[in-house]
């Protein structure tokens, strides 16, 4: 099945301007029909959902772009893509540890206030 940019935008909850930007940045390679209009496929939905997950983990757009370019080159780039993901995983772990520490600090302060209010 083929989707127009409007349909694809609705399906993925990503604006048409963002989709065009992703195309310009080679993050998403679009197909064109005989009239030159963009169209998207079910595989593009899977790919864009993965991009959203990478963004949700805080992966910089430049790294997503590098990963995407390698992905479009095929299986011969699998090792390079794995390395990008592993490197990003380490940064996610570091960020999680920071948030865990921040959360503990908040909990400690909340406990202090509750104790003072109960006395």
3D architecture notes:
The chain is mainly alpha-helical. Helix content is 72%, strand content 3%. It has one domain (5-118): Multidrug-efflux Transporter Regulator, Chain: A, Domain 2. Strands 1-2 form a two-stranded antiparallel sheet. A hairpin with a 5-residue loop joins β1 (31-32) and β2 (38-39). α4 packs antiparallel against α5. The longest helix has 41 residues, at 78-118. The radius of gyration is 21 Å and the shape is elongated.
What can be said about this structure in brief?
The chain has helices at residues 5-12, 16-24, 42-56, 61-73, 78-118; strands at residues 31-32, 38-39.
Q: Mind summarizing the main beta sheet?
A: 2 strands, antiparallel
Rg to the nearest angstrom?
Answer: 21 Å
Number of helical stretches of at least 4 residues: 5
| Overall number of domains | 1
- Given as residue ranges, the uncertain stretches (5+ residues, pLDDT < 50) are none
The portion of residues forming beta strands comes to under 5%
Total number of β-strand segments?
A: 2
Class by helix and strand content? mainly alpha
> pLDDT average, as an integer?
95
The third-level CATH topology is Multidrug-efflux Transporter Regulator, Chain: A, Domain 2
Query: In sequence order, what are the helices and strands, one letter per element?
Result: HHEEHHH
Task: Summarize the SSE layout with pairings.
Blueprint (H helix, E strand, L loop, with lengths): L4 H8 L3 H9 L6 E2 L5 E2 L2 H15 L4 H13 L4 H41 L1
Antiparallel strand pairs: 1-2
């Amino acid at each position: 099945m083929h989707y127009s940019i409007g349909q694809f935008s609705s399906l993925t909850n990503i604006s048409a301007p963002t989709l065009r930007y992703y195309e310009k940045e080679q993050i998403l390679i679009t197909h064109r029909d005989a009239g030159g209009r963009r169209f998207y496929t079910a595989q593009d939905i899977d790919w864009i959902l993965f991009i959203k997950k990478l963004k949700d983990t805080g992966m910089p757009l430049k790294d997503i772009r590098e990963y995407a370019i390698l992905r479009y080159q095929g299986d011969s780039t699998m090792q390079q893509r794995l390395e990008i993901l592993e490197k990003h995983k380490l940064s996610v772990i570091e960020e999680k540890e920071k948030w865990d520490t921040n959360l503990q600090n908040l909990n400690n302060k909340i406990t202090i206030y509750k104790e003072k209010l109960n006395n």
